[in-house]
Amino acid sequence: MSQVYDRVALIGLGLIASSMFWAIKRAGLANEVTGYARSKATRETARRIGLCDRVCETAQEAVEGADLVVLCIPVGVMGAVAEEIAPALKPGATVTDVGSVKGHVIQAVSPHVPDGVHFVPAHPLAGTEHSGPESGFAELFDNRWCLLVPVADSDPDAIARLRALWEGMGSYVDEMDAEHHDLVLAVTSHAPHLIAYTMVGVADDLRRVTDSEVIKYSAAGFRDFTRIAASDPTMWRDVFLSNKEATLEILGRFTEELFALQRAIRTGDGEHLFDYFTRTRAIRRGIIDAGQDTDAPDFGRGKANT
Ligand code: NAP
């Protein structure tokens, strides 16, 4: 794979940024990668483990001269950070982000993108429940999708280059508009996370089952929920606050279906339950056939599994 950008700046040095750095280095996609994170502790960790060619003391310093600036920070701070770096952006540079919600990020960031700088929002559909600078690994994006969500005036060349970067990092790349992205993700990621958070919260409240029993006898169903429910609280708070409408829409449907299943259990309607579970099993089959998970008995629990 050949170089796509001369200089890339990663703002935020957590799971996604650190995985991007190792994936960029693996394929030689950039000449130099600079980085910045808010806390001194994270910047020092990054320097210690060799994360980024240069770790800077300010976000402005990190983006100076960069051809690509990637906002790898929680969705709720994208606007403020975009405003902070705006004066230091190089004319002709591209700003992108990796936020899990797109409509809100576009609204928050767009007003701060200077004339002559391109903005191409993106979202890699890959992650784990771990966070921070030491959680990343080069293979995170391999065979995962990255969705590009161009805005009305996104430059075609800037889009093509960003696509080449994500493909170079191992991803499949697709494009869609922000509203559709936020609905798709509400179904495939945001609502499931909320349900997992709820289920683990409920188990925690059941006093007849002691905490130690919940942990000791944790069978596959609950154990899988706990993995998802261990995801970063800041990131997920911001996701729900910023993808409010689509998430509430899907949760409304979820509640209706849950009531129908509850009634089937109460009335002993085994046929309803059987038909329902047959339909859901086919969806699982489709995900495995599409290569997005494995059939392994451990539920495909690998490193890249969110
Ligand atoms: P993370 O591991 O928690 O890292 C977040 C980073 O952002 C940290 O380095 C943090 O710095 C930095 N940060 C926070 N506020 C900042 C600010 N105001 N200025 C500068 N840096 C700031 O998070 P992540 O999992 O990489 O997620 C980053 C983004 O990717 C989020 O928008 C998320 O929605 C999206 N995303 C996440 C996943 C996933 O599964 N995790 C998947 C796809 C997309 P400190 O360490 O100094 O606090």
Automatic annotation (TrEMBL):
Pathway: Amino-acid biosynthesis; L-tyrosine biosynthesis; (4-hydroxyphenyl)pyruvate from prephenate (NAD(+) route): step 1/1. The keyword NAD applies. One of its GO terms (molecular function) is prephenate dehydrogenase (NAD+) activity. GO terms for biological process: tyrosine biosynthetic process. Keywords: Amino-acid biosynthesis, Aromatic amino acid biosynthesis, NAD, Oxidoreductase, Tyrosine biosynthesis. InterPro entries: 6-PGluconate_DH-like_C_sf, NAD(P)-bd_dom_sf, PDH_C, PDH_N, Preph/Arog_dehydrog, Prephen_DH. PROSITE patterns: PDH_ADH (PS51176). Its EC number is 1.3.1.12. SUPFAM superfamilies: 6-phosphogluconate dehydrogenase C-terminal domain-like (SSF48179), NAD(P)-binding Rossmann-fold domains (SSF51735). It catalyses: prephenate + NAD(+) = 3-(4-hydroxyphenyl)pyruvate + CO2 + NADH. This is prephenate dehydrogenase. Belongs to the prephenate/arogenate dehydrogenase family. It holds the Pfam family PDH_N. The keyword Kinase does not apply. Residues 6-295 form the Prephenate/arogenate dehydrogenase domain.
